[in-house]
Amino acid sequence: MRFSSKATTLLILIAVIAIAPVFFPSSYYFRVGSLIFVNGLAVTGLVVLIGYAGQISLGHAGFAGIGAYACALAPVHLGLHPALAAVFGAALSATIAFLVGRPILRLKGYYLAVASLGFGILVSMVLSNEARLTGGPDGMAVPELGLRGVLRTVGVDLSNTEFWYAFSGLVLVLGAWLALNLYHSPTGRALRALHGSEIAARTVGVDVAHYKLVAFVLSAVYASVSGSLLALQNKFITPDVAGFMHSIEMVTMTVLGGAGSVLGAILGAVILTTLPQVLTIFQEYEQLMLGLVMMLVMIFMRQGLLPSIARSVRGRGE
Amino acid sequence: MPELLQFLLSGITVGAVYALVALGFTIIYNASDVVNFAQGEFVMLGGMITFFAHAAGLPLPLAALIAIIATAAIGVALNKLAIEPARGAPVVSLIIITIGASIFIRGATQLIFDKQLHRFPAFSGDQPILIGGATILPQSLWVIAGALAIFFCLWLFFTRTLIGRAVLATANNRIAAQLVGINTNYVMTLSFAMSAAIGALAGVLVTPITLTGYDVGLALALKGFAAAMLGGMGNPKGALVGGLLLGVLEAMTAGYISSQYKDAAAFVVILAVLFAMPQGLFGRKSTDRV
Amino acid sequence: MSLLQIEGLGIDFGGLRAVHDVGFSLKPGEIVSVIGPNGAGKTTLFNMISGVYAPGRGRVVLEGEDVTRMPPHLLARRGLSRTFQNLQIFQSMSVLENAIAGHHLHERGSVFADLFSLPASRRRSKASEESARVLLERVGLGRAAEQEAGSLSYGALKRLEIARALALKPRVLLLDEPAAGCNAVETEEIDHLIAKVAAEGVSILLVEHDMKMVMRISNHIVVLDHGEKIAEGEPAAIARNPRVIEAYLGAQATEVQNADG
Questions:
Q1: How do strand C57-62 and strand C4-13 relate by DSSP bridges?
Q2: What is the reported pLDDT for A94?
Q3: Which residues contact A244 (CB under 8 A, 6 or more apart)?
Q4: Which of C71, C91, C101 sits opposite A204 (nearest CB)?
Q5: Considering the entire predicted model, what is its pTM?
Q6: Domain-terminating residue out of C148, C168, C188
Q7: Nearest CA to B140 among B123, B156, B157?
Q8: In this predicted complex, what is the ipTM?
Q9: How far is B60 from chain A (nearest CA, A)?
Q10: End-to-end CA distance of chain A, in Å?
Q11: How far is B289 from chain C (nearest CA, A)?
């Protein structure tokens, strides 16, 4: 219970984000931090889908791709400000999630996994193949967000990496707050109820198809905003953002830390984002390690890291 | 018309590989209800190990045999080390485990061997055979014949042998199978060994045509899964037909629509099949019990 | 006027007649029990009435409206609720949350309000939590509210399911073996609870193996055997019915007679 309380989770999150920079020896760490937050945001969305509603998606990178390319394309072709482009991407992702989710979410287990995977791959295929629009596999440039300049005029002067660390951290806290609100709300209960027993949820009046769709659309918006943030801070984007491996990483982060809790899932994002950074010297071992971590955690800690650790700590206390 | 025939022939060749991967899926799925996302890695291993054994001076048939046996052993290890300890885990966990295994095998292959693309000589030369204006490589005939032979052997195995029937019984009802004295752990081990061996054989057969490399497994796994689903999960006949259909469909897409979107064909089909008839072409309908 | 009317209901599974031509009706506040040997089709009948299975034949009429083949969540809106023979508890939720979840139809609202935890959303949550606590008290689980649902005993879970079903404020309540696996004391508690709920005007359809309980609290009994209705009537008449006794040969037959005597 200690870890599921809303205030505790938000406090821990804010404290870590605010205090960590004190120990950063170089700007590189701000960069890794903001990557963690970007992934953490996508993963928080998946907590709603996987942890609350019990539905799987192996295609959410597709929505990250939509969010990312919206920021690259909408400013050029629609004349939108990059920030508005991110909102536009989120709206587009929500719409597509709504349309795709309706038929997909009738499926269960492996079928849902593969249908969502197929969707994600189709998105990444379009992004790679429509080279005239997207620059193809080589990727394309993304315009500057411009918020840093605005901050400077009011006297807040941050380096590029510092700005993105703070900004993505803020968005992550906001995202976590919304997801935690949802958990304890009527909608969250309906989602968790259909996760626990679909048939019982229906008999208490939960429109299961509707609520699955709600979770799917919400998580798509999270993924989309995460993709937008990634594009804006990198100022460059390639179709990899929508690729199958990115979808897998997102799901792995979610279940690694513990899909049932926002904090746990973000911990998963921390581990899987820093692992390749730590292992840069052993770059050849990266895939080996990733695969190994995925297997070991799922075999020995089915609830995910955080709940398993919490349980063993509590168990020792009693 | 020769154009259509040409697409058909190349489609059937690729489809035969998908069918073999789908058969591998089916065997494991039936024995354990697990969808093994590492299935494509078996195909990759079959090709890679054969190449390196051959390059080390072994004759090709011996190299292929070693590859198939080694891959079967890896399949058994996968079952013992990753699947059996996770029995009863939710579907999401099993998906992560087998995808993790797939990434692990890929990473290990890249370390032990290399990141290059490889091929070894075709079994009966590279002189194309002319059929009604279209051509087909002799190796394609090997692939198609291999798929049909495996399918036939599996059919014999499941209908004519005691152990094959034990596997079917386990697929039907694990607990009942245990009660009548079937060693279901042995059945699982056997299924993984067979499935991996079939995958490796597919890799051996197709590498002279498509080349192999450490990262070809994932795409194959997805296509094979698509084929299995198209035919109806758990149905060997469905796997064969689904694989061939998917291969032909891809070739037609590449030929008549766009070669860039050839891979999209598989997933469009999957989505369509799942929405229209979630049980696939030959699958059974199931009802939840409450 | 009857609240729930079942007419000629039937379903086949793979050519096998699971339930055939079953009909009866429920008046407000009435307790009707469906009894019969194992495999007689009682749970299947429940599943058809509650929209889990689509019946192949016949009609289900709720307050004059044909609700045959209507999905469970729409039946819930019309005041039909149920419990399950094999428990369907929301395992990862606390006992209290399970009971709150039963208030779904009363507490649901805009997702937006829930996301931002707007006052409207918090008000809805608070109202259902208060009601849930009252319901838990009522089924004797008031003190277990904060526990994880999975940690409760079987009998307690049965009562939690009843509380969850009552949260809906149903007009018709289907109870599938509410006393199965409960000890004598628990059975009596459930017994009282059902009588009290019925006294408030809720019609109760009951499947139960505990014949003493069935004979004691039912106004009317429907007997199924091999998927067909073989008898219906008042408890005393049912206990004397030769066809019923025949269907219940063995231990249960004497049980029926004992309960009568």
A1: antiparallel
A2: 98
A3: A58, A61, A117, A120, A121, A124, B218, B222
A4: C101
A5: 0.91
A6: C168
A7: B123
A8: 0.90
A9: 29
A10: 15
A11: 10
Q: Please, what is the Cα angle at C230 between C226 and C236, to 5 degrees? A: 130
Q: At what angle do helices B217-231 and B91-112 cross, to 10 degrees?
A: 140
Q: Is the confidence at residue B287, as pLDDT, over 50?
A: no
Q: Which residue in this structure is represented by tokens 């998908």?
A: B18
* Residue-number span of the structural domain to which C198 is assigned: 1-79+170-261
Which chain A residues are closer than 8 Å to B84 by Cβ?
Answer: none
Whether chain B has a CB inside 8 Å of the CB on C86: the answer is: yes
Closest Cα in chain C, distance from residue A49 (Å) = 14
Cα–Cα distance measured from residue B190 to residue B202, given in angstroms and rounded to the nearest whole number? 18
- Chain B residues within 8 A of C88 when measuring between CB atoms: 290
Cα-based distances in Å from C130 to A58, A187, B98, C99:
40, 18, 45, 10
Looking at the DSSP assignment, which residues form a beta bridge with residue C4?
Answer: C26, C62
Contact status of A7 with chain C (Cβ, < 8 Å): no
Helices (H), chain A: 6-19, 27-46, 61-77, 82-104, 109-129, 131-134, 147-153, 160-183, 186-196, 198-203, 208-234, 244-257, 262-278, 286-300, 305-317
Which of A288, A293, A301 is best to mutate for the B interface (most B CBs within 10 A)? A288
Tell me the CA distances in angstroms from C80 to A136, C21, C168, one per residue in order. 56, 22, 8
Q: How far separated are the first and last CA of chain C, in Å rounded?
A: 33
- Looking at beta carbons, which residues of chain B come within 8 Å of A106? 275, 278
Does the domain at residues B2-276 carry the CATH identifier 1.10.287?
Answer: no
Q: How confident is the model at residue C257 (pLDDT cuts 50, 70, 90)?
A: low
Q: Residue C167 and residue A205: Cβ atoms within 8 Å?
A: no
Question: Worst-scoring range by mean pLDDT, A304-308, B188-192, B213-217?
Answer: A304-308
Residue A318 has pLDDT above 70, yes or no: no
pLDDT in tens, B214-232: 889 988 998 898 898 888 8
Q: What is the DSSP string of A121-186?
A: HHHHHHHHH-HHHH-GGG-EE-----HHHHHHHTT----HHHHHHHHHHHHHHHHHHHHHHHHTSH
**CB-based contact (8 Å) between C44 and chain B?**
no
Domains delineated in chain A: 6-317 (1.10.3470)
Q: Which helix (H) or strand (E) holds C8?
A: strand C4-13
The answer on C164 and C46 residing in a single domain is no
Q: Structure tokens of B290?
A: 């409450």
Of B107, B264, B288, the CB nearest to A287: B107
Which one of B29, B84, B92 makes the best mutation probe of the A interface by having the most chain A beta carbons within 10 Å? B92
Number of domains into which chain C is organized: 2
Residues 169-188 of A with CB under 8 A from C: 178, 181-182, 184-188
Token pair 């509590």: residue: A314
